[in-house]
Design a protein that fits this description.
alpha/beta; 7-stranded parallel sheet
Length: about 400
């Protein structure tokens, strides 16, 4: 059993996988499609972060791959339809780094409004410029949060604790926290002293902020983006900052980010009161350790028991397991008669089904069986030959 971890995933994950019996290869950097295709031969579990793209071509080179773990929130870098078609489960962690991102956003709100970064840059350059001009307390100012999910709502609570008035805009029906008030997107742009983005990576958010949106923002406001790079037109943002329309910005994500340490360029470089960070919103030791623990646990659990809870592309199935039973997993296209065909194959061998669960998601059907006897290779071949079957396997505890 082999597992591959790339992009410097926390050692917690490697330890969990090794204890589960896996031979683990852990790499510090992201891999290209060709490199990943080569590395995936014979690999059962793959762990990535945000810079490695799991493409259809890479998946085709990995017939043994059972699951992919995204040790981050986003899964846009994974071809999920191709994974589903190949019977490969995908897991992520939508929770563990949300606090780290919210804390960085709050810190940047304070630094922008106090012009801390601009003052530090001047002092590093040898200029003493003690002034209160353009510096403000956050208390009483309006924070506008675009995207009120796990990160945005946590930031909302923390900002209110500092005395800020919070307004938010979201495309879904979400519950306001504390005294936060829901407003329209246009109202948020017009009222907020600081606008911060915490949206997901869905196509609807591409180019969400451009010249038109910056022009509608309150004069002298600040802008923060710790969500996705393609959400913002950085040329338009730089123009708004140079003109003085915006007072400052903090950007952690970019449309084109290097896969490893090296040169980088953006039109925002060199502008005063602009904080640039290399996609480190969730990069705290605490967050990475928690993510390493959470995602690796999901991968091991899936491998050992077939449980798909928290999968982003499979139906959520879980079945209590007995040490006396033998577990079988059947992944198939969602067409009529699949359960009947599998049950009939087991019955012909005199095997008793002690418990089972079946669920579907779109075109995919997923079933877990506990049977009273071990499943031999002949049975697995017979089940795999059932029309519309995608994958059949036994659990590790077989």
């Amino acid at each position: 059993m082999k597992a591959l971890l790339v992009e410097n995933i926390s050692g917690v994950a490697e330890g969990n996988l090794r204890r589960a019996g896996f031979e683990v290869e852990s790499l510090p950097g992201a891999l290209s499609e060709a490199q990943l295709s080569d590395k995936l031969r014979g690999v059962s579990l793959l762990g990535i972060r945000s810079k490695t793209n799991v493409t259809k071509a890479a998946l085709e080179a990995a017939p043994d791959l059972l699951a992919v773990g995204a040790f981050c929130i986003g899964v846009d870098q994974i071809d999920r339809p191709a994974c589903t078609k190949a019977g490969i489960a995908v897991f992520n962690d939508p929770h563990s780094n949300s606090r780290s991102v919210a804390e960085l956003a709050l810190g940047e709100v304070i630094m922008l409004l106090r012009r801390t970064f601009a003052a530090s840059t001047e002092l590093h350059g040898g200029t003493w410029n003690k002034t209160a001009k353009g510096c403000h307390e956050v208390r009483g100012l309006v924070l506008g949060i675009v995207g009120y999910g796990r990160i945005g709502s946590q930031l909302s609570d923390m900002a209110e604790d500092l005395g800020m008035r919070v307004i938010f805009s979201d495309v879904t029906d979400v519950l306001a926290r504390g005294n936060a008030k829901r407003v329209t997107f246009d109202e948020l742009l017009e009222q907020a002293d600081v606008v911060t983005l915490h949206v997901d990576g869905k196509p609807r958010n591409r180019n969400l902020f451009g010249a038109e949106e910056f022009a509608r923002m309150k004069a002298g406001a600040s802008f923060i983006n710790l969500s996705r790079g393609f959400v913002v037109d950085h040329e338009a943002l730089a123009k708004s900052l140079r003109s003085g329309r915006l007072a400052g910005a903090a950007i952690d994500v970019f449309p084109n980010e290097p896969a490893a340490k090296g040169p980088f360029q953006t039109p925002l470089q060199g502008l005063p009161n602009v904080i640039l960070t290399p996609h480190i919103g969730g990069s705290t030791e605490e967050a990475q350790s928690n993510i390493g623990q959470f995602v690796s646990a999901r991968l091991v659990e899936y491998f050992q028991t077939g449980t798909t809870s928290m999968s982003v592309n499979f139906p959520g199935c879980q079945l209590e397991q007995s040490d006396e039973s033998h577990r079988l997993v059947h992944i198939h296209q969602n067409v009529p008669g699949m359960l009947l065909a599998v049950n009939a194959a087991l019955a012909r061998r005199g095997m008793n089904i002690e418990r089972q669960v079946l669920d579907t998601r779109g075109d995919l059907g997923y079933a877990i069986y506990d049977v009273n006897r071990p499943c031999d290779d002949d049975l697995l071949r017979e089940l795999a030959a059932i029309p519309h079957t995608i994958r059949v396997r036994t659990a590790l505890r077989q």
